[in-house]
Amino acid sequence: MAKMEDKYKNLPLRTGVGIIVINKENKLFVARRIDNPNNFWQMPQGGVEEGEDFLKAAFRELEEETGIKSVELIKELEGTTTYELPAHLLGIIWKGKYKGQTQKWFLMRFIGDEKEINIKTQNPEFLDWKWIDLDLITEVVVDFKLNVYKELKEKIYKIIN
């Protein structure tokens, strides 16, 4: 009998963006997902709509997920990162249309008042949010995104230190 993964191996990767938001203390914004009952946190991220450029998608996703508008772009990170979903999520996440995601990441500084941050959006994705030290990012993320967050952590260190 074919494994479940075989059914999904030819699915495409979703094109997405990720946003690393840091505050004036260089702490990272992370939020806890509604659809994951465990204590895993992530940085804002989402899909790119057809014809949309990556930076516009990043600003749109950031506002849609967190209410954050008051940011300034520090840097577009070089290259992209990719992750694939674990077998138990294949066919479930993104309505079964993708097997994972290729993401373009942007580092931005939050320059607003924290009252602006609102995760109770029209289509909420998060239960809670907080600022954490960069060192902790790889300790709070879900395992199938760990490689992405390790790579991002190294790139962020080089930029902010």
Please provide a written account of the structure.
There is one protein chain. By secondary structure, the chain is α+β, with helices and mostly antiparallel strands. It has a single domain, classed as Alpha-Beta Complex (Nucleoside Triphosphate Pyrophosphohydrolase). It contains four helices and eight strands. Strands 1, 4, 5, 6 and 7 form a five-stranded mixed β-sheet that branches. A hairpin with a 7-residue loop joins strand 2 (28-33) and strand 3. The model has no long low-confidence stretch (mean pLDDT 93).
Condensed summary:
The chain is 23% helix and 30% strand. The protein has 161 residues and is of the alpha+beta class.
